[in-house]
Structure to design on (127 residues):
């Protein structure tokens, strides 16, 4: 069982930056693929970014590519999302997630393949 707690969400200006963090409980953090998703009311939860167990491989959704950076620190059980050049359309609740999916996969995009989720942190970007 893994418990995930996100932090860092707040109100930001368009063009600005935010850094979200997610801390995981337990001693098996490095065995999970980690991801960030976001959701706005009335829409499906959208894939934002994922990072491999080692942290070497990352993958991003088209809407954030080139602006957001995912990273992890396995020694500190944390995964972060650096968000630059923010846009009003980035406004959403951001969720951290952990996946035990196949050891042969580096990253996971499908939200159905994530096993554990945090409670979410609100990011609001004003124009």
């Amino acid at each position: 069982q893994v418990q995930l707690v996100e932090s860092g969400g707040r109100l930001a200006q368009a063009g600005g930056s935010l850094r979200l963090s997610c801390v995981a409980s337990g001693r098996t953090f490095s065995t999970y693929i980690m991801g960030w998703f976001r959701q706005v009311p009335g829409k499906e939860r959208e894939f934002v970014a994922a990072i491999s167990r080692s942290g070497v491989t990352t993958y991003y959704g088209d809407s954030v590519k080139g602006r957001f950076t995912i990273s992890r620190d396995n020694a500190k059980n944390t995964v972060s999302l650096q968000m630059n050049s923010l846009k009003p359309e980035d406004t959403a609740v951001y969720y951290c997630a952990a996946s035990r999916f196949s050891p042969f996969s580096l990253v996971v995009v499908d939200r159905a393949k994530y096993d554990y989720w945090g409670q979410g942190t609100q990011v609001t970007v004003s124009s």
Remarks:
- The chain is about 0% helix and 45% strand.
- The chain has a mean pLDDT of 96.
- The first strand starts at residue 4 and ends at 7.
- The CA atoms of residues 14 and 87 lie 5 Å apart.
